[in-house]
Amino acid sequence: MKIRVADITEKEKILESSEQVSTYPTLLQAQEAGDCVFLKPVDVFLAIVKEYGYIRVKGKVQTSLGLSCSRCLSGFSIDVASNFTIYYTKSSGEYFEDEVELSEEDLLSATYDGDEIDLENEIAEQVLLELPYKPLCNEDCLGLCPKCGVDKNKTSCNCVDNQSTLAFSPLKGFKVKQ
């Protein structure tokens, strides 16, 4: 999604769009890597205004994702939404090769070149930030049995749980004398 800088004024401009994941190469790459499946288009709501020498973009991004549980491997879906605010300034053309410490204000701001601001990367970034690091179908998911592979959420098995004996078996007979 691109915005012409000349069209941005002190009066807030509202933009809404619903775009397929193919519009965002970063999101398409995440889907092709198997991280998630986009079940709905990416809905974008933006309020854009020029203020105090900045261009403020306040927005919300939402979509629905299909994920695989990291414990039981079953598929489930979640709705993700992210609110964000980014302040844009015209690029000075100055680039630093050395490491530079960023302030909190720098983390909320971005620069643009030319006559347009391309929001594609920021929108994709907001969706990717909402992806769970360890997706779970529910917090109480029991996962798969490490021996027979049965889904413990659906059925039980007769396997003996030896996880505690493996790591701490040398300490089994350990006693502290007082």
Walk me through the structure.
The protein is of the alpha+beta class and 178 residues long. It has 2 domains: 2-141, no CATH class; 142-178, no CATH class. The chain is 16% helix and 34% strand. The protein contains 4 helices and 8 strands; from the N terminus they run ββαββββαββαα. Strands 2, 3, 4, 5, 6 and 7 form a 6-stranded mixed sheet that branches. The chain has a two-stranded antiparallel sheet with strand order 1-8. Helix 1 (25-32) packs parallel to helix 3 (120-129). The chain is elongated and about 75 Å long. It starts with a strand and ends in a 10-residue tail after the last helix. The mean pLDDT is 83.
Short description:
By secondary structure, this protein is an alpha+beta fold.
Count of alpha and pi helical runs: 4
Total separate domains: 2
Order of helices and strands: EEHEEEEHEEHH
Q: What does the overall shape look like?
A: elongated
The SS-based structural class is alpha+beta
**DSSP helix fraction:** 10-25%
Strand content: 25-35%
Average pLDDT taken over every residue: 83
User: Count the strands?
Assistant: 8
Radius of gyration: 24 Å
Q: Sheet bearing the most strands, described?
A: 6 strands, mixed
Unreliable segments of 5+ consecutive residues: none
N/C terminus separation: 71 Å
